[in-house]
Amino acid sequence: MADLTSFQAFIQCKCPRCRKGNIFTGSAYSYKLQKTNINCPHCNLKFEREPGFFYVAMFVSYAMNVAEIITIGVASYVLGLPLIYENLWYYVGLILFGVLLCSPINYRYSRVILLHYLTPGLHYVPGSGDLIQKI
């Protein structure tokens, strides 16, 4: 099996070191709660690098929420919802619905962005975990 590119590993939520193990159990939209694996199932990389590591993902998620709010607001205006006081609650409702709809994706990709792009010293190592899988 050919190794995934960095972007493919990011989109598929794979481990940043081996690009083979899953970071999460289950899918983003399922009846079970999505959880972050403690270690990579393939190379045994510990995802939570230090205690409280994923608190930084809240800031990434906040930035994603702001981008979604602006996008939904501008799209509503461009698609014909006039920006007047009487339509205020339509805007609020649309924005809340959009943010709630995107929250599982925000949870997932804020952690993936943190692991793949914002963690210093965590890089792709070709063949990492292959020895662990053979034992």
Itemize the secondary structure elements and their pairings.
Blueprint: H1 6-11, E1 24-25, E2 35-36, H2 56-78, H3 88-117, H4 130-134
Antiparallel strand pairs: 1-2
Helix pairs in contact: 2-3
Keywords:
4 helices, 135 residues, 2 strands, two-stranded antiparallel ribbon, elongated, mainly alpha
The outline comes out as elongated
Major sheet: size, sense and barrel closure? 2 strands, antiparallel
Helix content: 40-55%
Mean pLDDT: 89
**Low-confidence residue ranges:** none
Radius of gyration: 19 Å
Span of the ends, CA to CA: 19 Å
Q: What is the count of β-strands?
A: 2
Number of helices: 4
Helix-strand makeup class:
mainly alpha
Explain the overall architecture:
The chain is mostly helical and 135 residues long. 47% of the residues lie in helices and 3% in strands. The protein has helices spanning 6-11, 56-78, 88-117, 130-134, and strands at residues 24-25, 35-36. It is elongated. The model has no long low-confidence stretch (mean pLDDT 89).
In brief, what are we looking at here?
The protein is mostly helical and 135 residues long. The protein has four helices and two strands.
